[in-house]
Amino acid sequence: MKIIISFLSIFTCAFCFGQSDWSYIGSSVNKMDYYIKDIRKTYKDDVYSIWLKIEYPEKKVKNKKGQWTTVAGNHTISSSNINCTEKETKLDRVIKYSNKGIVLKDQTMYSEWERIIPESMAEAVFNFVCGEPE
After folding, report:
1. Quick one: 43 exposed, middle or buried, by C-beta within 10 A (0-12, 13-18, 19+)?
2. pLDDT at 24 over 50
3. Per-residue pLDDT, 59
């Protein structure tokens, strides 16, 4: 019994602190929360590799009895590159998770560099990684 309680307490604490290594960037107008981690400079000057997490808001759905209920939103984790000199971004991989943590889709992207749109969450990510423009 002690082993079971110890095992459960370890995993409970792991879930309590699971968000701690993600840095909060902000919330979009659609109420999606953006987090970032593992910012690493690549082999090229001013190009950084990052992991980005987007948490979707709760939503109301009808259950089997036809009653409305609120369920937690899904989340997406993606691997991207940010070019601080050119103000561009490139997406490498996107993994979509259910609200229970089940992988719904894991897709490798072969995207080209794209300019970052002003006043977007991509620009907020850019400013977090590269610093605010002067």
Report:
1. exposed
2. yes
3. 83
Contact 95, 106 (CB under 8 A): yes
Angle, vertex CA 126, rays to CA 125 and CA 132, nearest 5: 110
Q: 3-class DSSP state for residue 98?
A: coil
**What pLDDT was estimated at residue 132?**
77
Among 1.10.3210.10, 1.20.1560.10, 2.40.128.710, 3.40.50.720, what is the CATH number of 23-130? Answer: 2.40.128.710
Helix (H), strand (E) at residue 126 = helix 121-130
Map out the domains of the chain as residue ranges. 23-130
Q: Are 22 and 39 in contact (CB under 8 A)?
A: no
- Taking only Cα atoms into account, the Rg of the chain, rounded to an integer number of angstroms, comes to 18
Residues in the chain: 134
Residue 134, pLDDT score? 62
Is residue 11 very low, low, confident or very high in pLDDT (cuts 50, 70, 90)? very low
Q: How far apart are CA 49 and CA 62, in angstroms?
A: 40
